[in-house]
Amino acid sequence: xxxxxxxxxxxxxxxxxxSYGIGFAIAAGFAEAGAKIVxxxxxxxxxxxxxxxxxxxxxxxxxxxxDVTDEAQVSAMVKQIKQEIGVIDILVNNAGIIKRTPMLEMxxxxxxxxxxxxxxxPFIVAKAVLPGMIQKGHGKIINICxxxxxxxxxxxxxxxAAKGGLxxxxxxxxxxxxxxxxxCNGIGPGYIATPQTAPLRERQPDGSRxxxxxxxxxxxPAGRWGTPEDLMGPAIFLASDASNxxxxxxxxxxxxxxxxxxxxx
Length: 265
Ligand code: NAP
Ligand code: GCO
What we know:
- Helix content is 40%, strand content 14%.
- By secondary structure, the protein is an alpha/beta fold.
- D-gluconic acid binds at residues 98, 100, 146-148, 153, 156, 159, 189-191, 196-197, 200.
């Protein structure tokens, strides 16, 4: 093994939903490690914002309009990427949403929408990229799981169900495609400061920290929220040849939350 095994030179990496947030940071890390970056978004506005953000960091990323829940759009995007850039070597199923609603108040439609984006879509996108990986004789799939792949909490029933399922989809892709030298692992971020968690960190009218913000600080041995940049190194590792014998694993990047009972109030 050499340190080159941690490089991604010449690899084509698709990161879904990566115009900002965790996906953008992971894609930027991959670019630093030598990968060619392709990403998808749902809106022209965020496509333009994402391309500008990558350009500002000196990254020549290619962006595609694609709703990851739409199998036809995903299939067309993967075909277009193959024609324009090359066969996808690395897939990060990052696109995701959360709806924080008490279960008895959550509609079945809202529950289905969260599961559709957070669980069905990773299946759809993985299914679209796997044939190319099999043909090439290697591939890396990284599913962005969550603390809620292991834990529940009030108001996130759909999200926890989806992310728990995503952990098991990760293990199943590992099981079904390991013989093709394809590794499928998960990353379970802890609480990361992105637009998705902004409501949990909003300052109170009196200027004090949000109660949930204080809760997470007390629950995290690192004593801070994570940043999207905290995920770059773990993602590069799981996308690189350095992790070719790591398969079906969920790597929690949580500052120690899962290991810690929490600080006494
Ligand atoms: P975010 O800031 O809300 O970004 C989510 C991204 O997913 C956006 O780019 C969004 O695009 C895209 N997206 C949503 N639905 C899509 C669809 N149907 N098709 C294509 N793109 C879609 O979230 P984040 O905090 O960066 O989280 C990224 C991933 O990490 C998610 O899977 C999330 O569940 C997971 N995660 C987050 C945390 C955390 O604390 N932040 C912790 C653990 C896991 P639009 O701009 O079109 O909405
Ligand atoms: C929430 C948060 C979490 C994080 C993440 C933790 O409302 O509890 O949004 O779900 O997004 O998934 O790993």
